[in-house]
Amino acid sequence: MAQRSKITRLENAYTKQIQAQQHQNKSILTKQRKKRAAIIIGAFLLVCLVLSTEIVHAKLSLGQTQTEIVGRQQKLKTTKATNQKLQEHVKLLNNKTYLENLIRSKYYYSKSGETIYSLPSDKASDVTAK
C-alpha cells in the first residue's frame, strides 16, 4: 500500500497567493523561453535561406560559365583549324613553283613567248569578270 505523506499543506490566502505568483513567474519564464526559441529558430531559418539562395545563385553562375566555356572551346577549335589552313596556305605561297602555277592559272600570266588558250571547259576564274 502506498504510504501517505505526513506533511500537509496549508490552504490559506497567503499560500494561495505565493502559489499563484510562482505559477505566474513560471508562465512568464515559459513565454520568454518560447519567444527566445522562436527568435533563434527564425534567425537560423533566415541564415539558411540566405545561404541556400547563394548556393542556387552559384549553381546558376556555374552553369552559365560551363556553357560559355563550351562555346569558347568550340570557337577556339574552329579558329585553330582556320589558323592551320592559313599556315599551310602560307607555306604553299612560299613555294616558288606553286606560286607560279597559281599566278599562271588564276591571272593568265604567261612566260615570254608562251601563248595561253582558254577553253570553255576550264574551271579557272576569269580575271576581267568581277
UniProtKB/TrEMBL annotation:
One GO process term, biological-process aspect: cell division
Transmembrane spans: 37-56
Keywords tagged on the record: Membrane, Transmembrane, Transmembrane helix
Keyword 4Fe-4S: no
InterPro entries referenced in this protein's UniProt entry, alphabetically: DivIC, FtsL/DivIC
PANTHER family: CELL DIVISION PROTEIN DIVIC
Protein name: Septum formation initiator
Organism: Secundilactobacillus similis DSM 23365 = JCM 2765
